[in-house]
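Ticket reopened. Same input as before:
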Amino acid sequence: MASVSFHDVQKTFGKVAVIHGISFDIRDGEFVVLVGPSGCGKSTLLRMLAGLEEISGGEIAVDGKVVNDLESKDRDIAMVFQSYALYPHMTVGQNMAFSLKLRRADAKTTGERVANAARILNLDKLLERYPRELSGGQRQRVAMGRAIVRDPKVFLFDEPLSNLDAKLRVAMRAEIKALHQRLKTTTVYVTHDQIEAMTMADRIVVMHDGIVEQIGTPLELFDHPSNLLVAQYIGSPAMNVIGGRLRRHGSEPSVDAQGASWPLGALAGGSDGQAVRYGIRPGDMEIVAAGQGIAAKVIVVEPTGAETELILEVGGETLTLVLHGRTPVRPDDRIGLRIDGTKAHLFDEGTGARIA
Amino acid sequence: MSAAAQRLPPKRRLSWRQVSTEAQLLLVGIPLLLWTMIPVYHLFLFAISPKDTATSGKLWPDHPTLQNFSIVFHEHHFYLNHFWLQMWNSLLIAVAVAVLTLFIATFAAFAISRLKLPGGRTVMNLALFTYFIPAAFLAVPMYKTMSVYGLLNSQWSLILAMVTIASPYCIWVLKQASDKLPWELDEAARIDGASPLQLFRLVYLPLMVPSLVAVGTYALLLAWNEYLYAFLLLSKDTDITLAVALCNFLSADDSPWELLMATGFIYALPPAAIYYAFKRYMVSGLTAGAVKS
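Engineering reply: fixed in the latest deploy. New output:
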């Protein structure tokens, strides 16, 4: 186990800079998820930590020791790849024992460690099989087993669940989380799937265009996104965002948008008349009778069983609303929306930075 | 109709499209088969004909005999005095060429494709460029080169010449094949602690076996079948390969055709056997590098 720290880390490919000076620390035993859209630099950052990409500037340290110039094998890290990267000509057991074999570990230690990892991952009966004889989920577990036998300081996962079907992904998500709780090894996990990030991470690092947008626990990011980008990336369905003007006069601050007044809670910043983006999560709105609250028209009703998702039209904007249970409303119904102003988010129109 | 009869599967009926596809295949396949087999058949016909009726033109000899093979095997003819030695020469040279070519091409492909050595692209372009020059063009320069290095009349001259000719193609094929191995395997091995040589030995080589067999077979057959270079570079009867020795049969006015054909038939068997033994690899291995992907 170890801490990891990034200090002003930069990466350029030729003249193109893809990572612009990233700094943050990962605590010993922490599960940190790097999340962001494709091309945001999250995988590159992970690969720099793994020693698979050169570090163009800044420093990466594992357990206080700068690893910039260390070979991958000397960094004491293990990595699970998106494509599993199992050696096709080796059995499951040989795949898992490969790193120990290279380190010339004695047969007894190797056997014990492989058996231990196989037991943890439920691979005991598959040790003699070849990767081609395994299902996607089993291969994924072998890839994890290969990392576990190393007993490394840091586990790295590069989008390990992307190749699995939806059901298996949920199951493997839980397995990886359980594994981390059991082994308590510092873990850096890269994904573009915000649900994976929310469910697994101790802390999430949201990246975009080679910079860190925000770092925080899943609920911090959900409740207090520092900008529009994070607000819309974290949470599913995504936060509704409406352009409007801030009104500070009167009893309560609000936003005028689409011919309606959208309530806000306590508001510290912002000036009257300022162009803003008003954000409200799909679960933070309530349906009330037509004529009350904000007038909306139902476009689509999507029941998923436990929840119902409604696509609504307010003025020219389309909003998503999620309610628990079922609803009698039908497409084309006119309804009212009630919003708890304290749950609303406010961002600057130009910069996208959070106002409240 | 009984219920049981109703459950019988319907008769398999070929659609017109299937019939026409089969017919087209046969239309191409039969002439190809004849075109390939007729010379081989005549070779065999000569080989089992007695000397006096060898050129009679019949489609089957009146008195087929294995006498010719016996003469060949026992070296009972002036031209066949060194048959076994020349056969051995052919084999030795072919195997040496295959081994050396494999050695060079595998390391070159690994270095260019997996270690991404600078200048690799240039080497690949040069390898491709050699396709534009027929080997026959280089025969005389090669002879001159060998004489400069004092290698003429040594079997090394032929081995080195054939390795030179076979290597570019083999490097090209192996490089293309190794480009198809997932890059993550190298990265996983690096993280697991493998040095480049361990990566080569423990991960790369086992995965390249089909291509290596294909390329090795190619080099082996190229050297086995070579005539021009063998004829130019070797001259002693005890050094030459069987391909050159076969040609010596034609230096007399009354060439013993039946013995020439019997020897030729024997000479053609090992390549056929090797090809059939490794056919599976030849198809998958050589096509793996056929298209640049």
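The interface with chain B takes residues 50-52, 71-73, 77-79, 81-83, 85-89, 98-99, 102-103, 146, 150 of chain A (CB under 8 Å). Chain A has two domains: 4-232, 237-348. Please confirm and we'll close it.
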